[in-house]
Structures are given as C-alpha cells and as structure tokens.
Amino acid sequence: MRRMINYTGYFRISRYGKYLLSFTNILGAKPSQDLLFVVYDFDVKLRNLLFNYCKKAEIQFKSHLSNAVSIKENNSVFYVEKTFYTATKGENDKKKRKSNIRYFNDKFFKNIVKQEEELRKNVNKYPELKEYRTGGQRAKKKIPCWAAFSYYEFGTITNIYAYLRGDLRKAVIIYGYSKDRYGKETTKQIDTWLDAIRNLRNVCAHHNKLVGRTSSVVLLDSEDNPSLLVSNTDLFSRIYALKKVLNKEDSNKLKKELKSIIDKAKFDIYQFNIFPKNWEELFDGIKYL
Predict the structure, then answer these.
(1) Which tens digit of pLDDT belongs to each residue from 13-57?
(2) Nearest-CA neighbor of 149 among 26, 90, 66?
(3) Can you tell me the distance from the alpha carbon of 170 to that of 1, in angstroms, rounded to the nearest whole number?
(4) Percent helix, strand, coil in the chain (nearest 5)?
(5) How far apart are CA 7 and CA 138, in angstroms?
(6) Is residue 221 left, alpha or beta, with left meaning phi > 0 and alpha meaning psi from -120 to 50?
(7) Residue 179 β-bridge partners
(8) Of 262, 274, 178, 258, residue with least CA distance to 221
(9) Rounded to the nearest 10 degrees, how much is the dihedral formed by the CA atoms of 101, 186, 51, 36?
C-alpha cells in the first residue's frame, strides 16, 4: 500500500477506496486491499483503451467537419468567418438564445480567431506553419481548416459544430455517415455524443478514476430502442456515444477490445455496476448513424 500511495498519491487512490466502500453492504464486509489493487489496475487498462478510441473519434469527426463544410461552401477558412455560424444555436427559448449569443460574441468567436492567429505567430511552438508568416508564400492567408483543426482541442471543435448554421451541421453528418438525410434532432443528439466523448477523453487523459463515474447527459437516437440506455449519464452511455461517432470498423474493434479487458478482470465488474451485465447485447443493438 505504501508503494501504491507513493506512486499514485493519497488523494487519487483514496477515490477508489471511497468508491469501493460504498459497496460494503453488497460485499458483506469492508473491501480488501487486494480488491483495491485489482480495481485500480482494471481502471488503468480501461482508461488506456477508451482514450485510444476517443482519439479516433476526435480525428474522424475533425475530418468530417473540415471536409464537409469546406467542400460545400468552397471555403477552407469558414471557421473564422461569422456568416457560417448561427449565434443563437437555433434555440427557441428566449433566455437560451440570449445566453448563446452572448457566449458566441464575447468568448467563442474571439477565441477561434485568437487561436488561428496564435498558430501563425508562434514560431517556436508551431515552426511547421512558417509559410503562413511574414516571408512565407501564404503570409497573407488564413490557415485552412484541415490544418488548424489538427491543433485545436476537441472542446473547440465541438463548439464550432454546435454553432454552425443548421444546413452545415447536417452536411457534416451526411458527409461522414451512412444516410442521405438527417433532421435537426439528430444534430442536437450529436452535440451530446461529442460532449460525452470530450468529457471521457479528458478523464482518461488526466488519469482520473473512470469506474463508477457519471457525466453529461447523452441523448438517445430516436431510431434506437429506449432500453439501450439503462442510464444516460453512466459509463456505458459513453460507449454508446463512441459507437455512434466512430466508423463501423473502429466500433467493432472497440467492442472486441473492451470484451477482452472485461474478461481478464480479476474481480466481478458487474457487482460494482461498472457496465450492465448484458452490455454486449446492448452494444450490438445500437444502430450506426
């Protein structure tokens, strides 16, 4: 235990201890030190796996966003032009509309422009973009979206998508997924899936406890059976969001690798409600976007 605390720090490992203590009644006794170790080990493996698929989802969606809009509008720098956004996010509620407009004008758009300028001006941090600086062949041009998005954080990308005009939001998912037509409701659902993936990515990237964690609400696709989500804030709902956003090949790989980790776990993960017992059946029931 001393070695574990020396490695993880007291606070980090205490989160797992507190989590396990909440199951004392189910266990019939206080959780053992050995159980703490195997749960921590499982959580590390789970974080590594899910972080990998969060990265895949992020890269794929960035590509869909940059390609779809730049092709549709024949404009590779649409992201720094206000005409391609809807400041209200299409909200009907008066208070939400005002809040969205205020955030768009005061923070979001200014931040987008500032980040693009930073990419061009910071020689030490981004030397590979020298052609967009004084003396470069493209010194008078903005950085195209497919290049800028490679440097933008996923939170910035999700905000860009959230504020895009409605027709462009639909164009992104038509470009990246299987159907020829999507409604406004689908774009709202995707906002929650992207937010869930972003939150999951941050938890994994900062090595925080993942088991037993709840997060932002995930909206169910109207074409999916309501029984697929036991909870819209639990860990499986993050898996639901990943399958929706990832391409089919990566979705299938995610299930296979997740099953491998669960099968190798040295404790009963279902006893601690980490995943539903029928998670494989639920996963298979999630329709591709």
Answers:
(1) 999 999 999 999 999 999 999 999 999 999 999 999 999 999 999
(2) 66
(3) 52
(4) 65, 0, 35
(5) 49
(6) beta
(7) none
(8) 178
(9) 100
Compute CA 59 distance to the chain's CA centroid, rounded to the nearest angstrom.
11
pLDDT digit string (tens) for 226-267?
Answer: 999 999 999 999 999 999 999 999 999 999 999 999 999 999
Q: Rounded mean pLDDT of the chain?
A: 95
Q: What is the pLDDT of residues 75-130, one digit of tens each?
A: 999 999 999 999 999 999 999 999 999 999 999 999 999 999 999 989 899 999 99
Contact 244, 285 (CB under 8 A): no
Which amino acid, one-letter code, is at 157? Answer: I
Long-range contacts of 120-123 (CB under 8 A, 24+ apart): none
The confidence score (pLDDT) of residue 135 equals 86
Residue 222 has a pLDDT of 92
